[in-house]
TrEMBL record:
Organism: Nocardiopsis rhodophaea
Record-given protein name: FAD dependent oxidoreductase domain-containing protein
Positions of the FAD dependent oxidoreductase domain: 47-434
Classification via InterPro entries: FAD-dep_OxRdtase (IPR006076), FAD/NAD-bd_sf (IPR036188), G3P_DH_FAD-dep (IPR000447)
Domain of life: Bacteria
Amino acid sequence: MTPTTGAPSGASPNGRTFSMADVVRHYRSLAAESGSGTGPDGGFVYDTVVVGGGAAGAGVLRDLASRRGASALLADRGPFGAQTSSKTGKAIHPGIRYLRMAFHRLLLASGLRTDPGIRQTRAQNAIGAWLDLKLVWYGTRERRILLDTSGRTVEEIPNVVFVLPDSPERKWAVFFGISLYDLFTAVWSWARLNPRGSRVKYFPDNGSLHRELGNLDAERALGGILYWDGKASTDKTLIVTAIRDACFRSSAAEPVRALSHVEVEHYEWSPAQDCFLVTLARRFEHPALPERVTVRARTITNAAGPWVDRVRDRGPGTGGEETTVVYSRGTHLEATNRFIHESLEKDPRLRVGLVPLNAVRQHYLRPFKQNGLWYIQCTTTDREHTDPDCVVPEEDEIEELLHSYNELVDDRWKIGRRDIFNVFCGIRPLAASGSGIGVQDISRMFRINERRVGGGTVYDMVNVKLTEFRWAGSEVGARIARELRRTGVKRLGRSTTRRSAVLPVPDEERYAPNRDDHPRGDPDHVRAKVEHHVTYQMAGSYEDYLLNSGGIRDAVVFDAEGRCDLDLAVLDLVLERMAELLGWDRRRTRREWDAFAEAYLRNMAYADLGRRVREHVPATQARTAD
């Protein structure tokens, strides 16, 4: 669904907005620049064009915006952060399972353990162990940086790991590993002058676990350990905020621009102009603007996530190259009812993530609060996938998650399909391995593959996790700076994203998703929040706002039995407000509703609430019919 280009008439007090109207303005400027570049020295040349507006692209754009003298242009064919980067478990963590993978590979490399599923040499296992240890070590640093610099977008959450009879590691090994994980965190906290001691808590047996958390009924648990990690209140909001912050730091001399609903169709090196010529295609509705413009860039950054190989092949002479990524999918369901919401609201001790250490797929079962609603998000990991354009939750995954959560809690806390209000599925591109290694065993350390195309360099980014997007962006930014210095073009300043907090916008704190005083059920607040997201969070699609930015949670209510339900009047209110702000006519409004309903029904095929949306006629459409 392509957006229109309207925006609220009210101007920002500080002159900064981040809306589709700003995309139109930037695109118009590009068209003017493209028309002026008639000779070898004509037209502006960006230091890089970033392809993809997810986590990887956001990290690169913000890093370059923090460097003195840098310019950059980011383009995404859809809304920012609307694909893999908004289909995560919202965890901001180095990954306890990646630490386990590192030690597992060290034992394989030393010959002290065998694993027929990992057919690699000892040297390859040693390299894999080093990459995963590096990921966890620096990942603890990145979690701390995001906690310090992202405002209320990232916060801490306690988790309890449960050791089960079929867990892949023994209890003492789990206790040792998480203690080391916590030690990494403590070291980085001291390095950032924020000293802290150990925060782990050991539960040597089943009884001690039950005494700590009164909602448990984990009969199979042999013990557990509590540790602290981070979580994003909304993963998409974190990415959009990073891109917005980069644009706010732009200057007229060295512009930093971000375009949503604009696709990079082709790029090639021009020896005559000594730069890349990049063709951009407009995907938003605006008949007065050209459908395509050509911009100039010294480098290309391919941050297209699951589509990284497809974007690579849009350059000359790259068709048919070997696949560089394989896909790992994970499914997420979100469920609540009146008992769960009210219990978590009243007792902070129960706001603990549950992490059963399973033999095969890892599950994360975490309580989140968003838009004043407490709910449980259940997440799976590591199922092989093939098509990045077709990612739909499957029934067995829903059953797997329900069983995993219900096995740990007592009858009052159990959830069923009637309690599910949202289901979604995401995939992650992992670095392909020619040795037949399964997706669950591939290192999660990101890769930056450099390629020479003509006289320029292309950087392909693979497997950038939400937690490491700032780190990966700074790595690419440093490489771009070295390339510009090597070619004698310019010298860029140093990156400052380790310390620089994101720039605020007016009244944003009022709409923080995790505020304790969120006024649920207040239509005036819902209307004002929609306007805020249209003005400052690039909201231009009804489906994207509800399903990726968390707006669906404003419509969650409880029926007479205390089970989960949707207030369809809130969905109508959001649709009507977005149509008013963005200038949608009746047909466009209907298309926006249909796009949301189709996506919601596809994801909720195995949950009860999907039927209510299927049968609903939006209020604006009903009035028109009358």
